Amino acid sequence: MDGRVWSLVIGLLRNGLTLYGMHPWFQNLAIGTIIIMVVGISVFHRNREMELARVF
Fold first, then answer.
1. What residue spans define the domains of the chain?
2. How far is CA 15 from the centre of its chain?
3. Threshold 0.85, pTM exceeds
């Protein structure tokens, strides 16, 4: 996805957490956790696609 899309998603998430009344420290923790998970999933899928491309 484009960086602008991710900026929008993070902005919406941060806004929702603020409206929910979550403390800013926990907001940063939640957003950081989500970013790490998304990067990990992306790397996993990219590596899997490369392995499958080598087999075929």
1. 3-55
2. 16
3. no
